[in-house]
Design a protein that fits this description.
alpha+beta; Nucleoside Triphosphate Pyrophosphohydrolase
Length: 180
Amino acid sequence: MSSHCNESTVVHEGRVFALHRDRVTLPNGVDATLDVIRHPGAAAIVPVTEQGRVVLIRQFRYAVGGSIWEIPAGTMEPGESPLVCAQRELTEEIGFTAARWHPLGAIMPVPAYSDEIIHLYRAEALLPAKQQLDADEILDVHEFHYGEALEMIRTGKIRDAKTIAGLMMAQSGMVNPLPR
């Protein structure tokens, strides 16, 4: 099945994404006008300490009106690979580098209206580095036993999709499972 884009208009070009209004012919032959967010992609990291604890951040997110629990993540720069983005974001957001990186897979957080793909990694053998937050990043770094993080998902304290996916994928045996 495929569709055909007949016309695409950039409605808004922002710092992180562009909003397009596309006139398309769908696989069933129906013509439709769709709004699509074009995003350069991102990387997110499940950082794991030598003690098997997971590092989470509590970050202020204006769009949802407060702070939420997340794994470190960030948008890819032009020409940047997902792994290089993950390595950069780990240092910038939590002040660590990692000696070992395990790809967990990739997710599409909102495919109904965005082409964003988030590449997920598990980072191990963490080494201290200088945290380099962007001016608009307001966050605190916390370590949790993996079981605590899973309980935070179960009780609704963690609601961020990339964080839930990353923690579950890191635990699922896609790489060496974390202790509960």
